[in-house]
Specification:
The chain is mainly α and 216 residues long. The chain contains 10 helices and no strands. The chain has helices at 12-24, 27-38, 44-55, 62-98, 104-117, 120-125, 136-141, 146-172, 175-178, 185-211. Helix 1 (12-24) crosses helix 2 (27-38) and helix 1 (12-24) packs across helix 10. The longest helix is centred in the middle third of the chain and has 37 residues, at 62-98. The protein starts with 11 loop residues before the first helix and ends in a 5-residue tail after the last helix.
Length: 216
C-alpha cells in the first residue's frame, strides 16, 4: 500500500521524488539512489533525508529504505568497478569525462587517493561526496578483491545511508511544525543542484585551460 501522490504536499523536483517514493514504495529510494550514480549532480545527501522525512508521514519504512538504498549503492558501485576492471583506469577516465557529468580532476583525485591509501578508501570514500561513486573505478582497475570491495561498499554505504535517512526521519517527526516550510524545500534542492553543476562547470573550464597549448 502506498500513499496517493497528491497527499504528500510537495511540488517540483521534490514532488517528483515524493511521487517516485510513494508510487514505488520503499524500493523507490533505490531507484533514485541508482540514478545518482548516472547523474552525480543529484546528490543522495538530498534524496535520503527526504526519504527519511516521508517515512514519518506515510507507508515508507526506515529499515527497507536503508536496505534498498544500500543495495542500489552496491549495484552502482559494482557497475563502475566492472568498468574499471574491463577497460582500465585511463580509458574509464576518458570515457566518463567525455559525458561532462563528472570532472576529470575528480576521477584522477579518486585514483590518486586509492593508489596512496589502498582498499580502505573504498570504505571511507562512501561517505565523501564527489568520491563516493568514482572510487569504484580505480578499485576495479586495480582488480581489488571483489568480496572485500563489496563488503567495504556495503558497510560504508549502509552507515552513510542510515545516517542520512535517520536525520530525515528525525525531522519528519516534526512534520506538523515544518509543514508551513514545505514550499521552500524545492528552493534548497535546486540551489544544491545549481551549486553542484556550477562547481562541475568551473572544473571543466579549468581543465580545458590547463590542456590548452600555451602560446609563445
Amino acid at each position: 500500500m502506498t500513499l496517493a501522490t497528491a497527499d504528500h504536499g510537495f511540488t517540483g523536483l521534490t514532488g517528483f521524488a515524493a511521487d517516485v517514493l510513494t508510487s514505488l514504495g520503499d524500493i523507490g529510494v533505490g531507484v533514485l539512489v541508482f540514478i545518482e550514480v548516472l547523474v552525480p549532480p543529484i546528490p543522495s545527501e538530498v534524496i535520503l533525508p527526504f526519504a527519511g522525512y516521508l517515512s514519518q508521514s506515510g507507508d515508507l519504512h526506515l529499515g527497507w529504505l536503508i536496505f534498498w538504498s544500500t543495495l542500489a549503492s552496491l549495484t552502482g558501485a559494482l557497475l563502475l568497478y566492472g568498468l574499471g576492471a574491463a577497460i582500465g583506469m585511463d580509458r574509464a577516465v576518458r570515457l566518463l569525462a567525455a559525458t561532462k557529468l563528472v570532472s576529470r580532476s575528480d576521477l584522477e583525485r579518486g585514483a590518486e587517493w586509492f593508489a596512496r591509501s589502498g582498499a580502505w578508501t573504498v570504505l571511507v570514500g562512501r561517505m565523501v561526496p564527489g568520491v563516493r561513486s568514482l572510487i569504484s573505478i580505480p578499485a576495479g582497475a586495480a582488480r581489488m578483491n571483489l568480496v572485500r570491495f563489496s563488503i567495504y561498499t556495503l558497510v560504508g554505504s549502509g552507515a552513510w545511508n542510515a545516517l542520512l535517512i535517520g536525520v530525515g526521519a528525525a525531522l519528519g517527526t516534526q512534520h506538523e511544525r515544518l509543514e508551513q516550510y514545505l514550499g521552500y524545500i524545492d528552493y534548497v534542492v535546486y540551489a544544491a543542484i545549481v551549486i553542484a553543476v556550477a562547481v562541475l562547470v568551473m572544473r571543466r573550464v579549468r581543465e580545458a585551460r590547463a590542456l590548452r597549448p600555451r602560446e609563445d
